[in-house]
């Protein structure tokens, strides 16, 4: 799938992705994945519904969704490279992600964020109504 707006595009064609740039951001800049190995970044993307945001041929953003394409999805690794932040591109990327046919009619889409609540609230995300129902197994050393 692909979306286009002037010199910008979003694609799910993973063969176009710049995994060196994606890995650099996720392993060095993103608070949620510091130290992640490149092979894990690429394997995660290839086993997800991944979205690349491009200005012409330059990758400027990324997002991925882990989903069964029927009932549930988990939104992860959403980012815009620093030189492109503040231009509304995160909103456009989210519009494209949520418009994907495999994400229509799902019972639940979840995500975790420490600092982007305002962005995601624009798309209908809220805090869990019953946080006591949410459980996790957490391994903070997974990328070491």
Low-confidence stretches: none
Q: Report how far the terminal alpha carbons are from each other.
A: 34 Å
Task: Find the structural class using helix and strand composition.
Answer: alpha+beta
Task: Using the CA coordinates, give the radius of gyration.
Answer: 15 Å
Shape: globular
Question: What does it look like?
Answer:
This protein has helices at 19-28, 38-46, 89-99, 117-121, and strands at 2-5, 8-11, 49-55, 58-67, 72-80, 108-111. The longest helix is centred in the middle third of the chain and has 11 residues, at 89-99. Helix content is 24%, strand content 26%. The protein is α+β, with helices and mostly antiparallel strands.
What's the helix and strand layout?
Layout: E1 2-5, E2 8-11, H1 19-28, H2 38-46, E3 49-55, E4 58-67, E5 72-80, H3 89-99, E6 108-111, H4 117-121
Parallel strand pairs: 5-6
Antiparallel strand pairs: 1-2, 2-3, 3-4, 4-5
State the main characteristics:
six-stranded mixed sheet; 144 residues; alpha+beta; 4 helices
Task: Compose a concise summary of this entry.
By secondary structure, the protein is of the alpha+beta class. It has helices at residues 19-28, 38-46, 89-99, 117-121, and strands at residues 2-5, 8-11, 49-55, 58-67, 72-80, 108-111.
């Amino acid at each position: 799938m692909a979306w286009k707006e002037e010199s910008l595009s979003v694609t799910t064609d993973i063969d176009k992705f710049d995994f060196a740039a994606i890995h650099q951001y996720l392993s060095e800049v993103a608070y949620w994945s510091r130290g992640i190995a490149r092979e894990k970044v690429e394997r995660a993307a290839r086993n997800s519904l991944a979205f690349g945001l491009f200005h012409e041929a330059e990758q400027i953003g990324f997002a991925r969704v882990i989903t069964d394409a029927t009932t549930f999805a988990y939104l992860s690794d959403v980012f815009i490279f620093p030189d492109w932040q503040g231009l509304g591109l995160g909103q456009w990327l989210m519009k494209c992600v949520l418009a994907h046919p495999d994400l229509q009619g799902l019972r639940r889409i979840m995500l975790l964020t420490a600092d982007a609540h305002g962005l995601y609230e624009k798309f209908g995300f809220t805090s869990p109504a019953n946080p006591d129902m949410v459980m996790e197994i957490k391994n903070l050393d997974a990328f070491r």
